[in-house]
Amino acid sequence: MLDRFYVFPSTRERLRRGPLGPHIDAFAQYLLQRGYPRSTAGHKIRAVAALSDWLERKQRGVEDLDEQFVSEFLRYRRHRSLPRSEAPPALRDLLNHLRDAGVIGCAAREESPFHAVEQRFT
Question: CA–CA separation, 119 vs 122, rounded Å?
Fold first, then answer.
């Protein structure tokens, strides 16, 4: 699937490294199915590859991904003045894709003050 975005085999190989590497082609397909233009999808794929590199450096796996972990990654990028404008929506899309595929669990639900009241009525 990456061959629809990247001409050079070395680029596709680099993007497939790390813990998210086995999922990058399916993620690219997910983006195309949702109608993202090639250029936008390419930015999202590169953001996911950066997350994958970071996961590898931290010796973490796909199973560790959730909103909190993604926030930590975004803070890391911000502190290093790395481009991040496309990263938050791209990583939200990634989490949705991985959840839809059953690779990671559902998002932890934040409990509001009304949660206890709500529980009494269910």
Answer: 5
Name the nearest CA neighbour of 4 among 49, 39, 48, 51. 39
pTM strictly above 0.70: yes
| Cα dihedral 26→29→35→41 (10° resolution) | 70
The pLDDT assigned to 7 comes to 87
Upper half-sphere CA count for residue 4 (Cβ side, 13 Å): 17
> In this predicted model, what pLDDT tens digit does every residue of 63-76 receive, in sequence order?
999 999 999 999 88
Helices (H), 58-86: 67-79
CB 18 within 8 A of CB 55: yes
- Confidence at residue 120, expressed as pLDDT on a 0 to 100 scale: 54
112, burial (CB in 10 Å: exposed 0-12, middle 13-18, buried 19+):
exposed
